[in-house]
Amino acid sequence: xAPPHYLRLVCNTLNNKFLNGWIGRGAxxxxxxxSPDLTPLDFFLWGYVKNIVYAEKIRGLPHLCARISAAIAxxxxxxxxxxxxxxxYRFDICRGTNGAQIETY
Length: 105
Fold this sequence. Notes:
Elements: H1 8-17, H2 40-53, H3 61-73, H4 77-96
Helix pairs in contact: 2-3
GO molecular function, one term: nucleic acid binding
């Protein structure tokens, strides 16, 4: 079946609570493709790891796994602190605009 957050009951509840104004898969307002997100995995980690992993040609699954592990190992505490500051900034913008969509460049 559908993942729990896409069940008709959940969608109907969101429609009632947010007057058909919520954003997401199967929502009245579709989630924009390639939109920035509020999760650090989306706006920091995946892109960072991908850049390191694919800096050289992957020679098979063991090599890919090793590259991913090596990339994750380069994440420093300062990088995590910086990411936390960024998420606080993004939350502030979201609160300041009452959750309205914003353009980022």
